[in-house]
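Model it.
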Amino acid sequence: MHFHRVAFAARDPISLCEFYAETLGFAAVPGSQRSVTAGETTVWFELGDTDPGHFAVTADADINSVVAWLDDHDIDILETDEGPSIRFEFMEADSVYFEDPEGNVVEYVCYDGQSSGEFDPETDLVGVTEVGLVARDVDAFVAALTDALDVDVWSDFGEGSVVFVGDQTARFVVAAEGRPWYPTDTPATVVPVSVQCDATGTFEPEGLPHGVNVDQ
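Modeled.
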């Protein structure tokens, strides 16, 4: 699966977009003050009163070089259980986390065997690989999501309080409402998220501000 476009709500979308373009090195979209690109994915920020969410981006570089780059650019790296980065054997990858100016928990994922060496955001941001979706009933939500999009559960944690739906390339991280976004104490809350991806079908759960492959 691949994410082509992801939209998040932001209290100040223009300033947040500037952070991603000017500080993190995402590519600016000509003529837009609210969208940037990370490899194959366009990230769009829409005006809205919202709480922090989570998404991850694949970085085609060595994890230590990504950590060093973030540190050199005065990004406060979040401490994990293993230090500034953490190993996920089931993903065959290492991750580093930080927060953007609106408190969203951002993750850079570095997969084994795909590293080009020293990190350069201009060339090494491959695309969005995780999008957080918050549900009040995770089991029911996942069942509806997998049925609507014809995708599978990849992995789950914490007795089903977090479920990965998709694959190594791209996945939805379905989290139970109130469960903290790792590695912070920030509780997952239901916030608007819309996604355009290459999965089959559409998904627009009743009573939740999420939409996948839904005309916006």
